[in-house]
Amino acid sequence: MAKKILILPGDGIGPEIVAEARKVLDLVNEQFNLGLEMQEALVGGAAIDATGIPLPAETLEAAQAADAILLGAVGGPQWDTNPDFQIRPEKGLLGIRANLGLFGNLRPAILYPQLAHASTLKPEVVSGLDILIVRELTGGIYFGQPRGYRTKEGGVREGFNTYVYDENEIRRIGRVAFEAARARNKKLCSVDKANVLEVTVLWREVMNELSAEYPDVELSHMYVDNAAMQLVRAPKQFDVIVTGNMFGDILSDAAAMLTGSIGMLPSASLDANNKGMYEPCHGSAPDIAGQGIANPLATILSAAMMLRYSLGEGAAADKIEAAVSQVLDQGLRTGDIMSEGMQRVGTAEMGDAVVAALRA
Ligand code: NAD
Fold it and tell me: Which residues does the annotation say bind substrate (predicted)?
């Protein structure tokens, strides 16, 4: 049966990097007879310009009908001054995540040995790094009610948010993480702040309860401040990390930076049935948009994750990842991962090199 893929190029470098992922998907579609049907739609600033809103109804309908979604990136300074927050590009993404119930964010941080020098940490600390951060994406303090900004008596301004999770929200993200750990090295570290926050006392309890269902996975717990420290001290001690929305937001960016280039990192946001939206970890990079120099590999690797997690096409995913490794072996580098003695290439050349490696 045909599988519907919705492609959302978005803004800035989005259309440039997605075009390269599309070349790769078109080829593996043919090589593995995947039956992928690809369709494109507008989201973010591009949708605001064309329709006045960041998530047009037809984009949302297409997202609901799709088996998986591949996104470039959204955002740019030209849309940041709108005082109406509903008409900001990011609302397009948040709308898709909320409507599709994409609560599980998977962010791998893999350091290809060819790029070990790109990290700011010593090569022996990071070389061969391969960790996965599982972040809860639709709950926690970013969504908790009540929230607000007000002026109290005496003219004193006050901002407030609510950090809340119920046990069902914790259990479903816990399952995603235990399953992921089971498919990897069977080590799961749950990160919380159970010494201070009651909501994470519950988080820890639920993770411990779940652990009985996954006796093959070794569960440990760590406070978030220690986790931040351990990530930069000895990151290879981790296999899979699971944490809430805010801690995950911060730790996954730190983990991304261990690898030296955000231009290499894919991500996935999944619902309870493994339907998902896949996107590079980086943003729309307005500073380099339109120049043909952006690194398309994070988006190409996001397409590989899509094949693996939502479409059950692990062999095609493996082949794409091997092709990416091969172009790095060939010494090809976009500007963000460039180093002495390597060959600098642009966005399209990098995409073409991956396609050539897939054909070889
Ligand atoms: P960014 O990730 O877009 O850029 C940070 C730096 O990394 C820039 O110097 C950029 O040139 C570079 N960079 C990013 N991706 C690259 C790539 N593939 N190849 C080479 N270099 C790359 O972050 P930012 O500058 O903070 O944000 C720019 C815009 O992107 C903002 O409007 C922001 O809201 C948006 N944003 C969108 C998403 C998303 O769509 N999921 C995520 C983060 C930021």
Answer: 97, 107, 135, 225
CB 105 within 8 A of CB 136: yes
- pLDDT tens column, 221-270: 999 999 999 999 999 999 999 999 999 999 998 998 888 778 899 999 99
Q: CA-to-CA distance for 26 and 243, rounded, in angstroms?
A: 35
Q: Can you list the domains of the chain with their CATH numbers?
A: 1-108+273-360 (3.40.718.10), 130-258 (3.40.718.10)
Is this model's pTM higher than 0.85 or not? yes
Active-site residue (options: 249, 275, 309, 319): 249
Return the number of other C-beta atoms located less than 10 Å from residue 145's C-beta.
8
- Best of 42, 115, 284 to mutate for ligand 1, by most ligand atoms within 8 A of CB? 284
Q: Which residue, by CA, sits nearest to atom 23 of ligand 1?
A: 283
